[in-house]
Amino acid sequence: MSLDAAPANTWVPVTGASLVLPEAGVYEVTADVQGSIGWAAGVGNAIIDARVFDVTAAAEVPLSARRIILFTDQGATTTTGIQANASAAALYQVAGPATIRVDGSWRTDVGTTAQKVVWATNFRFKKVSD
User: Fold this and answer.
1) Burial class (CB within 10 angstroms; exposed 0-12, middle 13-18, buried 19+) of 3
2) 61 contact partners, CB below 8 Å, separation of at least 6
3) What residues does 99 pair with on adjacent strands?
4) DSSP string of 53-66?
5) Average pLDDT by stretches of 10, the chain with 130 residues
6) SS3 label, residue 7
7) In sequence order, what E strands does 58-112 have?
8) Does the CA dihedral 36-32-72-82 come out positive or negative?
9) Which end of the chain has less neighbouring CB within 10 Å, N or C?
């Protein structure tokens, strides 16, 4: 999911990264998330974050937020980029069926970034108790 059109510090749903927890219970929710970002001049504190969000409850799944990328490259003079991975796993209790998804967000404190992308693989759940 490209984040370039989204304002900084705005959570954006990641395309294709949505699941339904089918019934009440405690679930282990796991998301393997990747991010990439490009820049062409000195950059300070370029950040890409991800989280798991409960759409049904309109709330972040506790302890699921992860920083995928944080870097500073004040010496850059040519176009370059970086890609990184992060995994999040959390125990999450729901009272009934719930839709959860992966969201991504970005921020750059100094300089200009482009080609900001977040995607999720192996987004899954396992019921661990009622």
Assistant:
1) buried
2) 29, 51, 52, 53, 54, 90, 92, 100
3) 20
4) EETTTTEEPTT--E
5) 94 96 98 92 88 98 95 74 92 98 94 92 96
6) coil
7) 59-60, 66-73, 80-94, 98-110
8) negative
9) C
